[in-house]
Amino acid sequence: MQQYDHEQLDFLTAAMPPEVWTLPAELAAVDHLLADPAILAPLLAQLDPERGRPSVPAAQILRLLYLKDRYQLADRVLIQEVADSFHWRKFCHFGIADPLPHPTTLTYWRRRLGPTGIAAVNRAVTARLHTEKIVRGRRFRMDSTVVEADIHYPTDSGLIADGIRHVARRARHVAALVDEVSVPIRDRARSVKRRLLNIGKVLRRRTGEAVTEVRRITEELARIGEAQGRAVARLIDAAKEQLPVLNQAAARRVAQVKQALQDLQTVIRQSRSATAGERIPDRMVSVADPEARPIKKGKLGHPVQFGYKVQIVEAENGFVTDYSVSTGNPPDAEALGPALDRHRAQFGRDPDIVATDRGYDSAGNQRDCQSRSIRTVAIPKRGKKSTARIAQERGAAFRRAQRWRAGGEGTISRLNRKYGLRRSRYRGYEVVATGIGLSIFTHNVRRWAQRQIG
Questions:
Q1: Are 239 and 246 in contact (CB under 8 A)?
Q2: Per-position DSSP letters for 223-256, written without gaps between them
């Protein structure tokens, strides 16, 4: 059931001197902004207005999520810090005697909001900035970055070993629920570890024969994985026979085992394709986060990154007005048109200036920008340029727009350093996209607060 806020003070809180509860300037400004009903509306929309248990008030949840990303704290640590701080209790609308929610409440709310819910919160924040004329939507710059997944560097042998461990762990949970299991689930950890250590020894040789030997050992791991998979498949068949009498939780565990088995089979196929020299178009790079993908961005220090691609759109004063998260490495040029459409829907107009790097250049994008009421289109052309095009890109307006575009690199760097976009601690597209949205929400709200306090 919906609960908007908790404003009634208990006796102990009311008896405290005012100096204890006076918020720092930044938190006071953020508290004022988050009191906007339009910003809280997406959270309230996730709950029934009349049915169910009373929820933790939406105002408290949103402030807890802000503090989590503002200071990059784990859920458990955040609740401990709020419990120990008068200022944070005041900011989150908790009295001295009020109990704090369990850390899993935040996990529940992130799943409940999802990418759609947090995107609605960000649109409400942008609408508030537009109402206050801090952001007018006259400028538009766009760039992409990679949010790395929380995984180790993927190798064929490592992925197969992870898949064997993962499916065995899931299968043991199901085996405990199924009566009279005819095929026990063997612990193959020692066999797997021995072969991984052998690969490490072989690689120290640094010879051509080492590669062949590594592929041979990797194939041994694949055969171990296939044997484990056959045993788990028989376990799944036994569980299906008893599925009608199992409860919902048991059925969910069976589904998890089936998914783990599919992932193991996928990494085994990938390994054999790599040995055969075949191209792998949609490579799985992690069993823990199957939706992460390898992404090449042309960085010298990181030629290949593993995670999710994010498009960041900014307007005036460094506020992020739009973003999108995608799996794999789709071309940047495909993201410009939809982003301009969302900009028009948000601000009711096209921007006067559009500035991107040359990755967004395409004939279709150039025509699309020319058909809109955009005064300056600063998208450098790729490939050979005509004399007229060279003169256009050397013009004063184009160069000013490109200098302003370079500031977007600073915004991405700040999001990486301060708000956790360098490496996501979440796993799975839905949760990662939600976490990215919360980071951008925190960035915009804090930037607004800093403008208010000067």
A1: yes
A2: HHHHHHHHHHHHHHHHHHHHGGGS-HHHHHHHHH
Helix (H) or strand (E) holding 311: strand 305-314
As a whole number, mean pLDDT of residues 68-84 equals 96
CA trace torsion 340, 309, 269, 235 (10° rounding): -100
**Domains in the chain with CATH codes:** 11-114 (no CATH), 134-151+292-429+447-453 (3.30.420), 156-275 (no CATH)
How are beta strands 376-378 and 353-355 bridged, if at all? parallel
Q: Where are the alpha helices (DSSP H) in 296-395?
A: 333-347, 363-371, 387-393
pLDDT of residue 9: 63
Instruction: Please give the C-alpha separations between residue 103 and each of 65, 79, 110, in angstroms, as whole numbers.
Output: 11, 6, 12
Q: Side-chain half-sphere of 297: how many Cα atoms within 13 Å? A: 19
CA dist., res. 44 & res. 122, Å (int): 15
The helix-helix angle for 248-275 and 156-175 (nearest 10°) equals 160
Q: Name which of 358, 399, 347, 398 is nearest 377 in CA terms.
A: 398
Band of residue 300 on the pLDDT scale cut at 50, 70, 90: confident
- pLDDT, position 227: 93
Q: Which amino acid is at 247?
A: N
Cβ-contact 453, 37 below 8 angstroms:
no
- For 361, 375, 381, the CA distances from 395, given in Å and listed in that order, are 18, 13, 14
CA distance 124 to 351: 19
* DSSP-derived 3-state class of residue 374: coil
Cα–Cα distance measured from residue 313 to residue 297, given in angstroms and rounded to the nearest whole number? 18
- Contact in structure between 405 and 357 (CB atoms under 8 Å): yes
8-state DSSP, 297: -
User: Rounded to two decimals, what is the model's pTM?
Assistant: 0.92
Can you tell me the distance from the alpha carbon of 146 to that of 326, in angstroms, rounded to the nearest whole number? 10
pLDDT in tens, 361-372: 999 999 999 999
Residues 201 and 179: their CA atoms lie apart, in Å, by: 43
User: What is the number of other CB atoms lying within 10 angstroms of the CB of residue 381?
Assistant: 16
DSSP 3-state assignment of 142?
Answer: strand
Query: What number of other Cβ atoms are within 10 A of residue 18's Cβ?
Result: 6
Give yes or no for residue 181 having a pLDDT over 60: no
CB burial of residue 396 (10 Å; 0-12, 13-18, 19+): exposed
**How far is 412 from 34, CA to CA, in rounded Å?**
24
CB atoms within 10 A of CB 279: 7
Mean pLDDT, the chain, rounded, equals 90
